[in-house]
């Protein structure tokens, strides 16, 4: 992933101390003891132990009253892939897709719920140090940052998969975990352009994004129209006002 400069400059000795084995306990006191965190049946066992609400049981939220089923339905149909990890680095939840054939961009399976962060991120290609870096940065609010944008180069100029990590705080501003949102941004940008009647063009003078463009295939089946040569010609055309004209 392409990490921001402030994250690259973090002290390695500091963030490598991050405990991805989740061997401690949540500061909020929500860690469920007595069950192996990496047990594939952790969810059912943990829910039974704490008599968790389910089905048509109501949950009072700070601005609403919903059943567990309603919360599940809403989150499973929310755009993007979402996960939550608590302050003890335990993976507690993700919004499982409604379509069983949907290929997740950041694959998760039900058996992983309850796993430690170390188990969710196998130690290949320096994934563990990178995960520790993001977690530690948000735990400590490094340089005042409470979120991290990590775009994933895909080799296609019409696809930009973003991993967005947000620091979650309790009512007193204490660190409570991390919320992650994963989404290919291009469909949203495409919709924006179609709605407003605008275009995407390559800025040949821009310094940002140069590496991404250089490593992408402009002739890919879904990216042919982004070739610099075609863009140069488009710059001399009149704006397309057939769609979204009223919003110009």
From TrEMBL:
Pfam families to which the protein is assigned, alphabetical:
PAS_10
Spans annotated as Disordered: 1-38, 208-248
Organism superkingdom: Bacteria
Q: Where is the composition biased (Basic and acidic residues)?
A: 10-24, 227-239
Question: Gene3D superfamilies, per this entry?
Answer: PAS domain (3.30.450.20)
Query: How is this protein named in the record?
Result: Flavoprotein
Q: What is the lineage of its organism?
A: Bacteria, Bacillati, Bacillota, Bacilli, Lactobacillales
């Amino acid at each position: 992933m392409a990490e921001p400069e402030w994250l690259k400059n973090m002290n390695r000795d500091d963030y490598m101390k991050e405990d991805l084995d989740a061997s401690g306990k949540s500061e909020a006191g929500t860690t469920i003891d007595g069950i192996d965190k990496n047990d594939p049946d952790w969810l059912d066992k943990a829910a039974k132990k704490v008599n968790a609400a389910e089905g048509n049981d109501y949950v009072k939220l700070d601005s609403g009253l919903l059943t567990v089923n309603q919360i599940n339905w809403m989150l499973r149909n929310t755009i993007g892939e979402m996960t939550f990890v608590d302050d003890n680095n335990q993976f507690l939840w993700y919004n499982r897709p409604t379509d069983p054939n949907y290929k997740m961009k950041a694959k998760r399976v039900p058996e992983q719920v309850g796993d430690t962060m170390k188990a969710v991120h196998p130690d290949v290609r320096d994934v563990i140090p990178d995960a520790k870096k993001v977690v530690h940065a948000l735990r400590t609010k490094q340089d005042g940052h409470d979120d991290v944008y990590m775009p994933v180069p895909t080799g296609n100029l019409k696809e930009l998969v973003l991993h967005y990590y947000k620091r979650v705080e309790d009512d007193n501003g204490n660190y409570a975990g991390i919320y992650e949102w994963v989404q290919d941004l291009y469909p949203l940008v495409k919709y924006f352009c179609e709605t407003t009647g605008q275009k995407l063009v390559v800025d040949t003078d821009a310094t940002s994004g140069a590496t991404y463009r250089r490593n992408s295939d402009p002739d890919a089946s879904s990216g042919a129209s982004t070739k610099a040569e075609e863009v140069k010609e488009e710059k001399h055309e009149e704006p397309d006002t057939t769609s979204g004209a009223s919003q110009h």
